[in-house]
Write a structure and sequence with these properties.
Distance between the termini of chain B: 12 Å
Mean pLDDT of chain A: 95
InterPro entries (chain A): 3oxo_ACP_reduc (IPR011284), KR_dom (IPR057326), NAD(P)-bd_dom_sf (IPR036291), Sc_DH/Rdtase_CS (IPR020904), SDR (IPR050259), SDR_fam (IPR002347)
Strand content of chain B: under 5%
Structural class of chain A: alpha/beta
Shape of chain A: globular
Helix content of chain A: 40-55%
Strand content of chain A: 5-15%
Number of strands of chain B: 0
CATH superfamily of chain B: ACP-like
Distance between the termini of chain A: 28 Å
Family (chain A): Belongs to the short-chain dehydrogenases/reductases (SDR) family.
Largest interface: A-B, 7 and 3 residues
Subunit structure (chain A): Homotetramer.
Order of helices and strands of chain B: HHHH
Structural class of chain B: mainly alpha
Number of helices of chain B: 4
Radius of gyration of chain B: 11 Å
CATH architecture of chain B: Orthogonal Bundle
Low-confidence stretches of chain B: none
Mean pLDDT of chain B: 93
Number of strands of chain A: 7
Protein name (chain A): 3-oxoacyl-[acyl-carrier-protein] reductase
Shape of chain B: globular
Order of helices and strands of chain A: EHEHEHEHEHHEHHHE
Number of domains of chain B: 1
Oligomer: heterodimer
Radius of gyration of chain A: 17 Å
Pfam families (chain A): adh_short_C2
Largest sheet of chain B: none
Low-confidence stretches of chain A: none
């Protein structure tokens, strides 16, 4: 799938490591001009260094800061052109049994994982409507479909992304813009490495393919949805989970 | 230099894909020109760009005819 994204401007949030980094690399390899974001200067610098060979760039962005989101998308439009591929990947976890969950744990997850998708999608809308084309791809999670003890906040946000994407797909489909979701299963990243060994073993037992997924497995799925090959797919959730959950 | 009326009319024709003679002053975007809600949002976006102004959402909702668009632009732009 080389060069199928030539001329596209792709914005990937949370691109300094894990799944986001793999997505940024994949889209860059497909020929897109990729702007990857991180919350810290160091993270943005690391993205810059990684992507520079492919003409990509790192930028600092806190996805919970609405003004910053708008400013970045304006700046990208001026410097590179309007964003034509948006990948909402930035996400965090604050796992806690509901009885012990604090309001902050709930709110932080909703803000960072769900409200951010609303903000970035809204900010790229004008440019995509004018261009009459665009791709919005958000990273949800198998947990948004199955639920998981200790992750009521995370599961709610991830399920919210799916419903949001279906609605938006219906709103703007007539303008040639597709809105899709990739729902990763259990992927080998810093986020899942932080899980206790016991729950990791329990999860592995449920995966048909018997192994963790790689970040690149998710990146390939995102690359497909961003490509012209996926032009007739919208409102869809692509499950990349090794058979851990089959809807 | 085209008048505001002419420039608004041109945008309406382009955005809604309607014929020039349909775009009368009192034509309603939705009822007469077949616009859906997304079309009206796009129309406002195009007017904002043409006249380099920002139309707040609560004002945009009140612009439902060609004449209302012209009146709004006249009241909110300098020349």
């Amino acid at each position: 799938m080389s060069n199928t994204l030539q001329g596209d401007i792709a914005l990937v949030t949370g691109a300094s490591r894990g799944i986001g980094a793999a997505i940024a690399d994949e889209l860059a390899a497909m020929g897109a001009t990729v702007i990857g974001t991180a919350t810290s200067e160091n993270g943005a610098k690391a993205i810059d260094e990684r992507l520079t060979a492919n003409g990509g760039h790192g930028r600092v962005l806190d996805v919970t800061d609405g003004a910053a989101v708008e400013a970045l998308i304006d700046a990208i439009a001026k410097e590179f052109g309007a964003v034509s591929v948006l990948v909402n990947n930035a996400g965090i976890t604050r796992d806690q049994l509901l009885m012990r969950m604090k309001d902050e744990d709930w709110q932080a997850i909703i803000d960072t994982n769900l409200t951010s998708v609303y903000r970035t999608s809204k900010a790229v809308m004008r440019g995509m409507m004018k261009a009459k084309k665009g791709r919005i791809i958000s990273i949800a999670s198998v947990i948004g479909l199955t639920g998981n003890p200790g992750q009521a906040n995370y599961a709610a946000a991830k399920a919210g992304i799916i419903a949001f994407s279906k609605s938006l797909a219906r709103e703007i489909g007539s303008r040639g813009i597709t809105v899709n979701v990739v729902a990763p299963g259990f992927i080998d990243t810093d986020m899942t490495r932080a899980l206790p060994e016991e729950s990791k073993q329990a999860l592995l037992g449920q995966i048909a393919l018997g192994r963790l997924g790689e970040a690149s497995d998710i990146a390939k799925a995102v690359g497909f949805l961003a490509s012209p090959a996926a032009a007739y797919i919208t409102g869809e959730t692509l499950h990349v989970n090794g058979g851990m959950y089959m809807p | 230099m085209s008048t505001i009326e002419e420039r608004v009319k041109k945008i309406v024709i382009e955005q809604l894909g309607v014929k020039e003679d349909e775009v009368t002053a009192n034509a309603s975007f939705v009822d007469d020109l077949g616009a859906d809600s997304l079309d009206t949002v796009e129309l406002v976006m195009a007017l904002e760009e043409e006249f380099e102004t920002e139309i707040p959402d609560e004002e945009a909702e009140k612009i439902t005819t060609v004449q209302q668009a012209v009146d709004y632009i006249k009241a909110h732009t300098k020349d």
